[in-house]
Design goal:
Function: Required for H(+) efflux immediately after light irradiation to form a rapid H(+) concentration gradient across the thylakoid membranes. Together with PxcL, contributes to transient H(+) uptake following dark to light transition.
Distance between the termini: 77 Å
Number of strands: 0
Structural class: mainly alpha
Low-confidence stretches: 91-114, 141-191
Family: Belongs to the CemA family.
Strand content: under 5%
InterPro entries: CemA
Protein name: Proton extrusion protein PxcA
Order of helices and strands: HHHHHHHHHHHHHHHHHH
Number of helices: 18
Pfam families: CemA (PF03040)
Length: 458
C-alpha cells in the first residue's frame, strides 16, 4: 500500500512538472523580452537596439548586439518549447484557480488568481512586440515568421493587429486585465480544439468543442465558477466606483461645514473682510440693486404698486442693498470655503486611489471589458461623441461655460483672456493626443473600429 502511494505521489509530481512546461517556457521567454525592453529604455531611449538610435563606440555597440542576439535566440527556443508542449498538455486554469480560491478567504489574493489568464495573454503580447521590432534582424525573420504562424494561441504582429479586441474579451480565459506582468504568474489559457490550427474548418472544431464541454460532467460547476469570479470582480469594481464618487463628496461637504466653515467665518468676522472678493461680484451686486430700483419705479409709474414718495423708495432700496450685501458676503465666504474643502476632497480622492491599488486594477479590468467588448460601430460612436463634445466645432462654448462656472465656484474673477487662450490651446492638444492614441494603440488592438470610425467621421 505504501509503495503504491509513493508511486502515485511520484507520478503526480512528474505530471505536474510536465504540465507546467508551457508556463515555465513562456516565463523564460517573457523574461528575455523584458531584458531587451530594459536595454532599449536604459540605453536607446525606448528605440530598437541599433546603431541608428545610439551614439556608442564599436565595442559597446557589439556588446548590445550580442546581448540582443542572445535574448532573441532564448525567446525563439523557449517559444518553440512552449509551442510543442502546449499542444500536448492542456492546463485547466479555471479549475486550478477555483481550488486555490477555495483555500484562501482573502479577496485581494483571490483577485490575483483571477487575473492570471490576462497576465498570460499580456506576456504573449510583449513577446510578439519584441519579435516584431527585430523581425529583420539576422537569422530572425524566418524564425519569427515560423513562430507567428504556429498552432498555439500566440498572435503574431500582423494577426494581432487584425484581431478584434472584442473577440478576445469574449474568451473567458482572457477577460481579466493584469495589473503588472512582473507580479502575476503566467497561466496558460483554457483553449479548446478550435484554438489550434487544423485542416478541418474551425466551425467544425468549435462544434466538437462545444459538444465535449456539454458532455463534461464538471461543465456545470465550471460555468458556476466562472460566473462567481466575474460577479466578484464586477461587484468590486462597481463598489469602488461608488467609493470614488461618494467619499470625495462627503469629504468636501463635511470639511466645508464642520472644519473649514467655522474657521473661515471666524476669520472674516474678526477681520471685517471685504464683502466682494473681486470686481466682477461687485458689478453683479450693483447691477442687481439698479434693476430693483428701476423695477420699483416702473411699477409705481404704471400703477401696479401703490404711490410712493421719494423717501419711501429710497428706504426700500436701502433695505434691498443690505439684503444684497448679506447675500454676497455669504457667497464670498462660500467661495473661500470651497477652495479649501475642494483641496481636502482632492487629497481624499488621491489617497483612496493610492491605498486601493487592487481595486483600481479591478476597475481597470472592468472598464476594459466593457469598452473593448463593444461592437466596432459602438466604439466609433462613442469616440465621435467624445471628440465632438470636447474638441469639436461647438466645444469652445462648453469649455467657456465650464471655466466660468469653476471660477465662480472658487470665487475668482472670470478672466476672459485666460479662458480664450485656454480654449485656443488645450482642445488642440487634447485632439492631438487623442489622434495619437487612435493611431498608436487603437489601430493595433482594433483596426476594424478605426476603419468604422473613419467612415462614420467622413
Amino acid at each position: 500500500m505504501s509503495n503504491s502511494i509513493r508511486l502515485g505521489g511520484l507520478f503526480r509530481t512528474a505530471r505536474q512538472w510536465f504540465t507546467k512546461t508551457p508556463e515555465r517556457a513562456l516565463d523564460q521567454a517573457y523574461e528575455a523580452a523584458l531584458k531587451i525592453q530594459q536595454i532599449e529604455v536604459d540605453y536607446f531611449d525606448g528605440n530598437p537596439i541599433s546603431a541608428d538610435y545610439g551614439d556608442y563606440g564599436q565595442s559597446a555597440q557589439a556588446y548590445f548586439e550580442t546581448e540582443l542576439k542572445k535574448y532573441l535566440n532564448l525567446i525563439r527556443m523557449r517559444m518553440g518549447e512552449f509551442r510543442s508542449s502546449s499542444s500536448i498538455f492542456r492546463v485547466d486554469n479555471e479549475r486550478v484557480m477555483e481550488v486555490q480560491l477555495s483555500e484562501h478567504v482573502d479577496d485581494d489574493y483571490a483577485l490575483d488568481l483571477i487575473d492570471r489568464p490576462a497576465a498570460f495573454f499580456r506576456k504573449l503580447r510583449v513577446i510578439d512586440d519584441v519579435l516584431a521590432r527585430y523581425a529583420d534582424a539576422p537569422g530572425s525573420a524566418k524564425a519569427d515568421s515560423t513562430l507567428a504562424t504556429t498552432s498555439n494561441p500566440v498572435p503574431n504582429p500582423t494577426s494581432n493587429r487584425a484581431l478584434k479586441r472584442s473577440e478576445i474579451v469574449k474568451d473567458s480565459s482572457l477577460r481579466e486585465v493584469a495589473r503588472t506582468p512582473q507580479a502575476d504568474a503566467a497561466a496558460p489559457s483554457n483553449e479548446g480544439l478550435s484554438a489550434q490550427s487544423s485542416v478541418l474548418p474551425r466551425s467544425i472544431l468549435r462544434t466538437v468543442d462545444r459538444i465535449r464541454q456539454d458532455l463534461d460532467p464538471e461543465a456545470e460547476d465550471q460555468v458556476v465558477r466562472n460566473f462567481r469570479s466575474s460577479k466578484t470582480k464586477t461587484t468590486m469594481a462597481l463598489r469602488f466606483i461608488l467609493f470614488l464618487i461618494i467619499v470625495p463628496l462627503i469629504t468636501q461637504q463635511v470639511s466645508k461645514n464642520f472644519i473649514v466653515g467655522p474657521v473661515v467665518n471666524y476669520v472674516r468676522d474678526s477681520t471685517n473682510a471685504e464683502v466682494f472678493l473681486n470686481m466682477e461680484m461687485e458689478e453683479e451686486a450693483l447691477h442687481e440693486l439698479q434693476q430693483f430700483e428701476e423695477r420699483l419705479r416702473f411699477e409705481v409709474l404704471i400703477g401696479k404698486a401703490p404711490p410712493l414718495n421719494e423717501l419711501r423708495i429710497e428706504e426700500q432700496v436701502r433695505e434691498k442693498a443690505f439684503e444684497i450685501e448679506e447675500a454676497y458676503r455669504q457667497r464670498s465666504s462660500d467661495a473661500v470655503k470651497n477652495v479649501f474643502s475642494d483641496m481636502i476632497a482632492a487629497l481624499a480622492f488621491g489617497l483612496l486611489l493610492s491605498a486601493c491599488g487592487r481595486q483600481v486594477a479591478a476597475l481597470k479590468g472592468f472598464m476594459d471589458e466593457i469598452v473593448y467588448g463593444l461592437s466596432d460601430s459602438a466604439k466609433a460612436f462613442i469616440i465621435i461623441l467624445f471628440t465632438d463634445m470636447f474638441v469639436g466645432f461647438h466645444s469652445p462654448h462648453g469649455w467657456e461655460v465650464l471655466l466660468e462656472g469653476l471660477s465662480r465656484h472658487l470665487g475668482f474673477s472670470a478672466n476672459h483672456n485666460f479662458i480664450f487662450l485656454f480654449i485656443a490651446t488645450f482642445p488642440v492638444i487634447l485632439d492631438t493626443v487623442f489622434k495619437y492614441w487612435i493611431f498608436r494603440y487603437l489601430n493595433r488592438i482594433s483596426p476594424s473600429a478605426v476603419a468604422t470610425y473613419k467612415n462614420m467621421n467622413e
